[in-house]
Specification:
The complex is a heterodimer.
Chain A lengths: L1 H15 L5 H10 L13 H11 L3 E5 L2 H16 L3 E4 L3 H4 L3 H4 L2 E4 L8 E5 L2 E3 L4 E5 L6 H5 L3 E7 L3 E2 L2 H15 L4 E5 L4 E2 L7 E2 L6 E7 L6 H9 L1
Parallel strand pairs in A: 1-12, 2-3, 2-4, 4-7, 5-8, 7-12
Antiparallel strand pairs in A: 5-6, 6-9, 10-11
Helix pairs in contact in A: 3-9
Chain B lengths: L7 H10 L1 H25 L2 H17 L1 H14 L3 E5 L2 H14 L4 E4 L3 H6 L1 H7 L3 E4 L2 H8 L16 H11 L10 H18 L2 E4 L3 E3 L5 E5 L3 H7 L3 E7 L3 E2 L2 H15 L7 E5 L13 E7 L3 H6 L13 H4 L2 H6 L10 H11 L2 H4 L11 H5 L6 H14 L5 H14 L2 H19 L4 E2 L6 H4 L4 E2 L6 H10 L4
Parallel strand pairs in B: 1-10, 2-3, 2-4, 4-7, 5-8, 7-10
Antiparallel strand pairs in B: 5-6, 6-9, 11-12
The chains are: A alpha/beta, B alpha/beta.
Chain lengths: 231, 473
């Protein structure tokens, strides 16, 4: 059934299509104008990213080095869970963090029932949308994005790009080097729904809280500036 | 789904009796345009964005055979099994076959208007499968045995109180009262989490298919579609052949408009691209993935006069801005797709005989075309369908005769002016005391609902000519 359906559908589409060689079609596609990106809310890309994370109802923090990063994670865990435990994918960048210094006890692997917090290290992040990008795989199992109540995501400021087009340039480079991942996930905020009378509720199926920690050198007052831009 | 499009007027009268729903629609019609316009302002140059997207969509459709072949090659290379379905029955049978091959009993579904179009749920349920909708809105209407009233927010017609009562009836709540919306969402989350973890098959739709790399794109806020795509061992993506875009970058251009037009967000919480089954070393993901591409009249639309309708990105902006939709709601349209986009699509996907009332459910106000991110001239397409309705003699003969008479008189300027110059002053005289008429011969369709205002003393042409004679006055 499927084979005859396929031939029939393609026969109709060939009649309807304009024809021309693959090269000609590709050339035509290249000639189309590009979609203008919106004006960023701040000229500095880190600030624009953090502002958009806040607009997406995420929370933000910054950490200059690895020691500060584990401290920031420990503080978050203690604030919300009075705990030092979390689950994280087998990402070598996460494994190399000095967790013991801050008393954090990570378990590396896929999330299991009852684990409330997962930690991810973003492959890249997009200032335009305030989204982080992860690839499915050992370093970040898809369920770690979706099943916890809180997701903490580390973003290296060197992995921050301004626009979605720049994000795809990076992703395409990664795919050329390492092949196509099963899933590419752009996440821009906690899971939400407005399906009951239009009232916005967080934690529909995925995390109800989404916390971003930006790693690397950033201006000292960047958090305050981002918060003041949103309030 | 049984089609009731041709009883639109009766459906609409019925819908207006439910004042609770009418009030909610009214607030939706006031709020959603505000959210959209704030988001569109933030996007920068809306017109450039939509013209760029229109170019890309037109280019994709112009070369659909090429891009679909490319997508198929890449998707197979990524490890997917591809299926093609000419119509709804074929799609349903393909999906059931896959489920049966895996001895699956439990299926979880993400929101998909395509599978609403094919009636997949009831088909699978009749074959003994346990099919669970996981988008909160879809879950609510599945539990209530109802159909979606909006393409983006399917349970728009339900009040929180009705959802609470529904959950009390269907769930084992114990002493829990489900005080507010947050409690209800948490309740659904808990119930559906179990289903996600137990299901053998996940079914999702796709907002776009990327030809250059064989990925399918899924956009959600809840994350339910992603759970369907990642937890069960078998994944089936059901979508239509017209969702193809040449490159991943083209999808980002579409994303700049999609969420802003639909919900007023700059981006939805989850935008995911899936390539196929789980890779070596992956710790989760489906072992087997299928992509089922449905035609169901799209290939005919491609060569017909309504081709532009294939450029629709299903954002729902035309519904949110339509005065008819706001008044009567989605169920009045009697099939899967409501509002202006539905009034064009339904006759094309079913038949004009079954749905000729829908192209008439339009005031020609033009708001839908103004806000459409794909720049589809919806009022023009609706007018063309009404024209076809007349040519095919589907409208009442009285209407057609009236229209013919009107057209003939309009083409005889002397007669038109003579008639109006007689009737207008007469109506002015008769109605000058009250200012309006509660009854008029041949106009009961108007006066049954509202008063007809008494006209000014002179006709437009008389005033115009008088103005021409005294240009400085």
């Amino acid at each position: 059934m499927s084979e005859s359906a396929r031939s029939e559908i393609f026969a109709k589409l060939r009649t309807a299509s304009r024809g021309g060689s693959a090269e000609a079609i590709d050339r035509e596609r290249q000639c189309l104008q590009s979609a203008p990106a919106p004006m960023p809310p701040a000229t500095e890309v880190c600030e624009a990213f953090l502002i958009n994370v806040l607009k997406n109802r995420g929370s933000i923090d910054c950490a200059a080095g690895r020691g500060e990063t584990v401290k920031a994670v420990a503080q978050y865990l203690y604030q919300y869970f009075r705990s030092h435990r979390l689950v994280a994918g087998n990402d070598p960048r996460l494994a190399a963090m000095p967790w013991r210094d801050a008393g954090v006890l990570p378990r590396f692997g896929g999330i299991e029932t009852g684990e409330p917090v997962a930690l991810s290290f973003a492959h890249l992040a997009v200032a335009e949308t305030g989204a982080i990008v992860t690839y499915t795989g050992k370093a970040n199992p898809a369920a770690n994005n979706l099943l916890p109540e809180h997701q903490i995501v580390l973003v290296d400021r060197n992995d921050l790009v301004a626009t979605q087009e720049q994000a795809w340039t990076r992703i395409n480079q990664d795919m050329e080097k390492r092949g196509r991942p099963r899933g590419i996930n752009f996440i821009a905020g906690p899971s939400s729904t407005a399906d009951i009378e239009g009232q916005l509720v967080y934690g529909a199926h995925g995390p109800s809280s989404w916390h971003i920690i930006l790693l690397g050198d950033t201006p000292a007052d960047i958090l305050a500036r981002a918060h003041s831009a949103v309030t | 789904m049984e089609q009731r499009s041709n009883t639109f007027l009766d459906n609409a009268s019925e819908a207006l009796k439910n004042t609770g729903q009418a009030k909610r629609r009214d607030s939706m019609a006031r709020l959603t345009p505000l959210l959209r316009s704030a988001a569109i302002e933030d996007a920068g140059d809306f017109e450039s964005l939509r013209q760029q997207m229109k170019q890309v969509r037109q280019h994709s459709l112009d070369n659909l055979a090429h891009y679909l072949t490319q997508f198929e090659q890449e998707a197979v290379h990524n490890g997917n099994r591809m299926h093609f379905a000419r119509d709804a029955e074929e799609l349903n049978s393909i999906v059931l076959d896959i489920c049966q091959q895996h001895d699956a009993r439990r299926v979880v579904k993400g929101k998909s208007m395509v599978t609403e179009e094919t009636g997949l749920n009831s088909f699978l349920q009749r074959a003994g499968l346990d099919v669970m909708e996981t988008d909160l809105g879809e879950y609510i209407i599945q539990q209530a045995v109802e159909t979606p009233s909006h393409i983006v927010t399917p349970a728009l017609h339900k009040s929180a109180e009705e959802v609470r009562e529904l959950f009390k009836d269907k769930h084992d709540l114990g002493p829990r009262a489900l005080e507010d919306t947050t409690d209800m969402v948490a309740e659904a989350r808990q119930v559906l989490r179990e289903h996600f973890l137990k299901a053998e098959v996940g079914i999702i739709g796709a907002n776009a298919l990327i030809a250059e790399n064989g990925y399918s794109m899924l956009v959600t806020n809840e994350g339910n579609g992603d759970l369907c795509a990642n937890l069960p061992k078998t994944l089936i993506v059901c979508t239509t052949i017209d969702r193809i875009l040449p490159r991943a970058e083209d999808a980002t251009a579409m994303l700049r408009l999609l969420a802003r037009s639909a919900t007023g967000q700059s981006q939805t919480a989850y935008t995911s691209f899936y390539s196929g089954p789980s890779r070596d070393g992956d710790v989760d993901g489906p072992q087997e993935t299928h992509i089922v591409l449905l035609d169901n009249a799209r290939s005919e639309m491609l060569t017909g006069d309504y081709r532009e309708m294939l450029e629709c990105i299903r954002c729902g902006a035309c519904l949110n801005h339509c005065p008819i939709f706001a008044s009567v709601g989605g169920h009045a349209y009697g099939w899967v797709y409501p509002g202006p986009m539905g009034s064009v699509l339904t006759p094309l996907l079913t038949s004009l005989e079954q749905s000729n009332a829908l192209p008439n459910a339009c005031t020609s106000c033009g708001r839908c075309a103004e806000v459409c991110p794909a720049d589809i001239p919806l009022p023009d397409l609706l007018r063309d369908l009404r024209h076809e309705e007349t040519l095919e003699k589907l409208s009442p003969s009285r209407w057609r005769l009236g229209l013919k008479l009107h057209a003939w008189v309009s083409q005889q300027p002397w007669l038109y002016r003579a008639l109006t110059a007689t009737i207008i002053p007469l109506l002015h005289l008769m109605g000058r005391r009250r200012g309006s008429f509660t009854r008029l011969p041949f106009a009961s369709g108007w006066t049954n609902e509202r008063n007809f205002p008494a006209p000014q003393k002179k006709t437009f042409m008389q005033l115009y000519k008088a103005g021409m004679k005294k240009p400085n006055e």
